[in-house]
Each structure stands twice: as C-alpha cells, then as structure tokens.
Design goal:
The chain is of the alpha+beta class. Helix content is about 35%, strand content about 25%. A hairpin with a 7-residue loop joins strand 5 and strand 6. Bound molecules: iron/sulfur cluster (SF4).
Length: about 250
C-alpha cells in the first residue's frame, strides 16, 4: 500500500524509507528465491538467464516451437528435456536447494532475481547476503493503484484486528472479518462491505483528493500489509507500483 500520513485534516504524503538492504542467510535466500518464483508469473527471461549460473556453462536452454515451450539440456552430453517456464523455475529452485552454491555465486543469482545489488557479508556472526531492496529510491506517487488493483483480501493480521479493537475503531472493524482458531483471532479478511457482505474491489478508505491523486483515510493506523508495500523495487515493478519511476513527486 502507499505511504500517506494524516496531518490535521489533510492527508499528506510522506515516503517511508524501508531499509535499503536486507540480510539473508543462505537458507533464507533460497526460500526468498522460491517465494519470488511462486509469487509472480513465470519469469521466462530470468529463468533462462539463471540456467548457466545454477547448472554451469554446459547447461543450455533454448526456445521451442510454441511460445511456452523450452528445451533444457544439462551437461554437454545431457538429453534435452521439454518443459515450460514454470517447470524450469521449479527445477532451478530444486537444484539450488539440493546443491546450494557458494555464497558468491548465490549473490550473482540474487542480483538477477531481486533486481538489487547483492554482496556477501555477515550479521550477528552469521554469514549470508546483503541484498539491496532499492527502497531508498522509492517515493509514493499517490496513484492509488495498490489500494484498488492489488489483492489484499487475506492479508489482514491478528495484530491489525487487535490494533483496531484497542483503538475502539468499530467503523473499521465493521469492514473486517476475523478468522478465529480456538476462539482466538489469528488473521482477518479485508475489506468486506457490511451492507452486502461481499469483498470490496477497492479499499474503502481510499479517497481521491484531486483527479488521479489519492489519500488514505486511515493512514496512521493502516493494516500491516499496507505499511509493507512495496517491499522492494522488484516487488513494485512486478505489481504495477510507479513509485520508482522518478524520485520527485508532487506535494
Ligand atoms: S502503487 Fe505505489 S506509487 Fe501508487 S499509491 Fe501505491 S505505493 Fe504509492
């Protein structure tokens, strides 16, 4: 979600700077790659470019006769295997988990996957990778895309529910369905129109201040998912956020 802040009666924009680098251990980096591949549509160009990095120079991937078809050959004497991009992503992830490469090589892979410079380093005595998120260059343009086009239905947390309850915000709670397990709220669904019982297409707290320029009416207490969006340059690029196209923005 976007970075808005209420100041008096007038919501104003305030880009929130997330850390520009995150630290990942080898296992965390492999899991982040798996999630990236699973989260986004098959990234055919990326997957093909990773083949030599993951399998070595002798591996070769070539396009097939149809748009979705690829042929993968591992090793000079290997038998070509027919697959599609999603299968290639699965094969790459499986290979990385089976035979994790040295951190230097994994850094080169992460650089391509996450679109951020990656270096080998350590944190709290653990070796791993520092991956640049690019968030230092982010500036919300208040286009409202994230609040109107992205799917956040199942992204509400127990902490969101507890925060709105503690604040006595029945007006907000009325638009949320808590998910309970053994009597405890463990998650929540956002946003459900109390009049219809149906999920809304657009966040109900979004307001268009001037044509094409939006603000959030609950910015200071907005759900965690909204605070975390976008998590990185890649996340923004893959989900249609324009906050990285240029640094300056209108005020
Ligand atoms: S899509 Fe990006 S630029 Fe647009 S409102 Fe959301 S965070 Fe801001």
């Amino acid at each position: 979600m976007d970075a808005f802040e209420s100041k008096g009666d007038h919501p104003v924009q305030k880009p929130e700077r997330a850390p520009d680098e995150i630290f990942l251990t080898l296992d965390e980096a492999l899991e982040a790659i798996r999630l990236d591949f699973a989260q986004y549509a098959p990234q055919t160009g990326l997957f093909c470019s990773l083949v030599p990095l993951v399998f070595g120079d002798q591996a070769l991937v070539t396009p097939g006769a149809s748009r979705d078809e690829l042929w993968l050959r591992i090793g000079a004497a290997g038998r070509p295997e027919r697959l599609d991009a999603r299968m290639l992503g699965d094969i790459l992830v499986a290979r990385l988990k089976e035979a994790p490469p040295p951190l230097e090589q994994l850094a080169a892979i992460c650089y391509r996957v996450f679109h951020g410079r990656t270096r080998v380093g350590e944190k709290d005595g653990r070796r791993g990778l520092w991956v640049e998120t690019g968030m230092g260059d982010f500036a919300c343009r208040r286009c409202g895309h994230c609040c109107s086009a992205l799917d956040f239905k199942n992204a509400g947390t127990a902490a969101d529910w507890a925060r709105f309850e503690a604040l006595g915000r029945q007006d907000i709670l009325a638009w949320i369905a808590p998910v309970r397990r053994e009597g405890r709220v463990v998650a929540c669904r956002l946003w459900i129109d109390p009049a219809t019982g149906c999920f809304t297409d657009v966040c109900p707290w979004l307001v268009e201040e001037t044509p094409g320029r939006f603000a959030c009416r609950i910015h200071e207490i907005r759900p965690e998912i909204c605070r975390q969006y976008p998590g990185s340059r890649k996340h923004a690029e893959m989900t249609g956020c324009i906050g990285f196209r240029r640094r300056e923005f209108e005020t």
